[in-house]
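Researcher: Here's a chain I'd like modeled. Treat it as a single chain, no partners, no ligands.
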Amino acid sequence: MKSRPLKGRDFVTGALIIMPKVLAAMSGGVDSSVAALLLRDQGFEVVGATLKMFDNRDLGLENDGEGRRTCCALADIDDAREVAGRLGLEHRVFNFRRLFHHEVIRRFAEGYLAGQTPNPCLDCNRYIKFHHLWERAEPLGCHYLATGHYARVDYDRERGRYLLKKAEDQDKDQTYVLYCLTQAQLARTLFPLGGLDKKRARQLAEGAGLVNARKPDSQDICFVQDGDYAGFLTKVLGLASPPGDFVDQSGRKLGRHRGLIHYTIGQRRGLRLCFGQPRYVVSKDAGTNTITLGLEEDLSAGETLVDDVNLISVAALDRPLEVTVKIRCGRAEWPARVEPVDGRRLRVVFHRRPKAVAPGQAAVFYQGEVVLGGGTIIQEERPI
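Model: Modeled as a single isolated chain. Structure tokens:
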């Protein structure tokens, strides 16, 4: 017997519709599990999807890594499968190891070697979840893709555009890592947790008897053990980062560094040099293999250049615009003016000078709760 189509409210427009099929990304964590639960209870036909993005060999581990947690480990796949069974959902596991290494780990390594501070969570969303996972969704007949991110999507009829908005829970808001979403993607993306706080999400998980209701949140980069980025790059990937010179802002040599990958913008500890007052990593130059050190005030940036810009709330930016800017994950926003440079780049002029603006990280622009867009911070070459 053919099943009767389900009716309910569309998450984005609120219209009464025949409920479509949704592919729900389920990492094994509580957030994505509750997202699937909410979708099911809304009347959607939900297919759970868990991505295997690496195994122990990819992390440099010889066994199961007892006591170690990673977001896509075998235990997480088992948790996602058990939650899907508990909710009565179809569940699929997709092997994305090759894609994840190429699109995320490779970019992470290349960024560090280039003297940048890459954010692999951004690349995972951009190239894996909202690109390659979509290629698996459509053959399954899924009209929407859903994730457990804390964010909201709304449709602005006056602008004729889908908007990405901050989550109700500002402490959990994850729009910073979603700025790369296009209009086509936003039109078919659901964020069921956008109106919840984390405490309520855990209450819902416990009420539904989900195995991961009290599971700790994943921390740091999922494929790097214990936050040791340099160790991962050298020991696991076998990358070489040769020693070079520490210099001051006039180019005078101050000592030797261990390799660019061992240092981040704003770092003070671990320089292994003694000065009369604290020195900080101000910039890194892969071309000369030098690291510039300066005083704390030298970390402040009056402006920065942002490349590979994706705009969401507007189709194009043809004039300067007042915004607030996030330059890293977290709640801190800096008042600024964004100015168009060309089709790919914007200049950000800060009204209050932030510290440690790091090339390779994202700058995301906000107008209140609405994401204007974002891009990648680059180190501008200035004439000498």
